[in-house]
Design goal:
Elements lengths: L5 E5 L3 H6 L9 E5 L17 E2 L1 E6 L5 E7 L3 H9 L5 H4 L5 E3 L11 E7 L2 E7 L7 H11 L7 E3 L7 E2 L5 E8 L2 E9 L3
Parallel strand pairs: 1-9
Antiparallel strand pairs: 1-2, 3-10, 4-5, 4-9, 5-6, 7-8, 7-11, 11-12
Protein name: 2-keto-4-pentenoate hydratase/2-oxohepta-3-ene-1,7-dioic acid hydratase in catechol pathway
InterPro entries: Fumarylacetoacetase-like_C, Fumarylacetoacetase_C_sf
Keywords: Hydrolase, Metal-binding
């Protein structure tokens, strides 16, 4: 996958903000992932526990496409960095911190949702209506601040239900439009 940048949106679902006892933002919270963080497989880093965060993701191009992505987080490291007021990259931009499904075309952005299954159990489910900052607002804001170019990926934030990734876990991420699956991908966690 050749892209310019991955822009990630933090704290975009109210229930997830409450889940982690975070402060409610008055404007979008952004951070970046380098392309060295993208992997085909889910691989445990081996030096810190890793949490999954399923997200609706968009690939910018002549025609906007949607896909599923995991924003993996080293939660213990992130918590320490946040306490010290330091950037999150060590916890969010490590090797293997992002995996994606294919990106596909869709009809209506308001009709998109996601489901995440861990070992065949539904653990995350949400849709665009639950986002504090909707995708079109994010695209406009990101373009104003960083610029938004063909090949960029925007990860729009995770809903409640995040948790630990363990060796052998099987995950499936799905993107739905009007309740119908339009793209999905399965992974088995490797050590």
């Amino acid at each position: 996958m050749n892209a310019n940048k991955i822009v990630c949106v933090g704290r975009n679902y109210v229930e997830h903000i409450k889940e982690l006892n975070n402060e409610m933002p008055s404007e979008p919270v952004y951070f970046m992932k380098p392309f060295s963080s993208v992997s085909e497989d889910i691989v445990l880093p081996g030096y810190s526990p890793m949490h999954y965060e399923g997200e609706i993701c968009f690939l910018i191009g002549d025609r906007l496409k949607v896909g599923f992505g995991f924003d993996f987080t080293l939660r213990e490291i992130q918590s320490e960095l946040k306490k010290k007021g330091l950037p999150w990259e060590r916890a969010k931009a490590f090797k293997g911190a992002a995996v994606f499904s294919d990106f596909v075309e869709f009809e209506n952005i308001e009709d998109l949702g996601l489901e995440v299954y861990k070992n065949d159990e539904l653990i995350q489910k949400a849709d665009v209506s639950l986002m504090m900052f909707k995708p079109w607002e994010l695209f406009e804001d990101i373009d104003k601040i960083f610029g938004l170019n063909t090949g960029d990926i925007v990860m729009t934030g995770t809903p409640k239900g995040v948790g630990l990734v363990e060796e052998g876990d099987e995950f499936e991420g799905r993107i739905l439009e009007k309740g119908r699956v339009i793209v999905s991908k399965k992974w088995k966690v490797k050590k």
